Every structure is written in structure tokens, then in C-alpha cells.
Amino acid sequence: MTLKLNYKNKIEILTHKKFPFLRKGLGIGMNLELKNKNALVCGSTQGIGKATAIMLAKEGANVTLIARNEEKLKAVLAELENNKQCHSYLVADFSNPDELKAVLETTNLEFHILINNTGGPRSGAILDATLEQFQQAFTQHLLCNHILAQALVPFMKTQCFGRIINVISTSVKEPIPGLGVSNTIRNAVGNWAKTLSEEVASHGITVNNVLPGFTETERLSEIIQIKAKNENTTIVQMTAIMKNYTPAKRFAKPEETACAIVFLASEKASYINGINLPVDGGRTKSL
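The chain above was modelled as a monomer; its predicted structure follows.
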């Protein structure tokens, strides 16, 4: 990135189409020394999970994808950069913890990095939510995170190195209107992670939460459609309204959130532990 001082003495950032780090491929080359590190990336067929898997591979990690759609997993696997690396995928449906356990029982669990990332619960007012919706969200987000941590932490301890990054939501800091179930479950995951971070830190393992703001994913498209319908406006208008909520006046690209995740997964982030890191363009008002 190049800086130029213009005639008004303001710093002008010269970029490729304004934001060069958003260009296709995002070959930023952070040199995070992830060669020979094995990473398991959940929900890696789309959005933030996919972007994170691609970036981890660029940084030299051996990446194992995990999601429920095998065809999509194969497609993402083909996109991963491979410089004598060993990439693979696992098929598991996080709505069924027993299925996840069965998959792990037949898998080599020598992973240094775990990215917990699962699609958000259905939107809606909290009083309209059913018990089944709470139970399903709790299972997919907290119970499956716990199953994975129990399975992977023993190996991490033998290596005196481990990174667990949970992709949650800014609702951990500020509840988001219309996302009753999500607000509840995300905070449960946040407290689970903070507790775990204290228990494993002496083994060289860190546990952190990344809190994405409005990010260009299928999840955000769903939220925009529902909000537009509820407020009797168009999707275009609602998109503009939501962009205006953010000081950056735009939505994030999945790759921008992936940058934060991959840094936290590296050795360079060895003394960052037990935090909630918003990646939201400044939208969250709390510190």
C-alpha cells in the first residue's frame, strides 16, 4: 500500500479499486510461518470459513475442510493452494453430534489449529423462538465446538502449541435486534471459549473469538431480505441502510475477517488469548 500527501495535507491511500487487499485471491503473503501446521476449518464451503481455509493454505498450512456438503467440499479443496501440502476434507453434519463424533473416531486428530465456524441460527424475535430452535443452535454451535476441542486439545498439548479460533458475532458485545436465538447462543460460546482459554494457556494453546460484523455472505443476504420484508422496504434500500450503520459505510469481504483469523492462528499471536476481536468496520459501539 502506498501513501501520498495531497495538497490539502490529507493522507490519501492509493489503492487498486480503493481497497487492494480485497482483490481476487488476496495474496497478501503475511509470512505467518504456518508450514507444517495442520488446520481443521469448520463450515469451510462458503463465506468466512472458505476464505479462511484458502488463506491458511496460502500461508503454508495443511488444511482439512469439514462441512456437510461433500460436493462443495470437493470444489473448495480444488481451490486450495498446494505447495507440497496435504489437504483433505471431512463430511459431518453439526446438527448431529454423534455423527461428528463418529467421523472424528476415524480421523487422524493431529491438528494444531481449530477454526470453529458454523452458520448462524434463524433470525427472529426471541419470544417467537421455539425450544427446538434453541436446542438446535446450542448443539451446532456449543456442543460441537466442545466435541472438537475435547478431541483436538490432547494433541495440541503434546506440541506445546495450539490455536482455537471461534467465529462468532458482534452480538457477544451488543445484542443485535431480531436475532434472539443467535444473541443467546453466541454469548454461551463466548463464555465457553473464555473459560477454555484459561484452562489451556499453560500448554501454549490460545483460544480466541473473532466477531464479524456485516460481511458479504449468504447469512447477511438472508438477514437483509427478512429486514426488508419486515420493514416494508426494498432489498436495495435495506442494504444501503445497513451499510450506513457502519462507519466504514460498506460491508466486509470474507477475506478481511479471514486475515484476522489466520493471524490469530499463527505463532506471532502467541500472547493473545481469551479475547473477543470485532472485525466490523467500527460498528460496535462498546470498547
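The longest strand covers residues 205-212.
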